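Changelog-adjacent note: as of this version, every example in the card shows the full chain rather than a window. The one below runs 199 residues end to end.
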Amino acid sequence: MAHIDYYFATLSPFTYLAGGKLEDIAARHRASVTYKPLDVMALFARTGGTAPKDRHPSRMEYRAQELIRMAKKLDMPLTLKPAHWPTNPAPSSYAIIAAQKAGGGDLGALAFSFLRACWAEEKNIAEDAVVRDCLSAAGFDPALADSGLLTGAETYAANLEEAVAQGVFGSPFYVTDSGQRFWGQDRLEDLDLHLAGKL
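Full-length structure tokens:
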């Protein structure tokens, strides 16, 4: 059975625009997925990237246009300048890590709920109440927001180190067990074709 390591940041608009496509692809190919939330700003610093705030205005203007176009094509609501962005991504990331360990809910729905909360619902995903609501809506015990914080922090840091070692440099990023890497929500079709043996 194929496996996908899914590296992503809960603050990434491009990860939000991926929606539930990864989960659909994984189900179609009976592939397992390990969710690996990470600090994308630290990843940029480690792999030659530039944080959005430090990018040239022309790059930021193009990014804004691209996000609006993609959201329209996908018919997804998107707030270009969310009220709570950037915010601390650690609480939402720790919740995903704890939920993955606990099992029993829909991990894909949980990850997407944080992304949607940030980019479409004007919620602060660093707030305890938002984290609890997202956990509950995805079928997990909201008390996971309070458990395994040390393990969450350790795994979150380990995900970053593993990402750098695997050649990951952005979010979303998909790495298969065959060593193929796919960067961006616009490469999900290629991931699908690869798992089908066509690419």
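Structural remarks: The beta strands are 3-8, 32-37, 173-176, 181-183.
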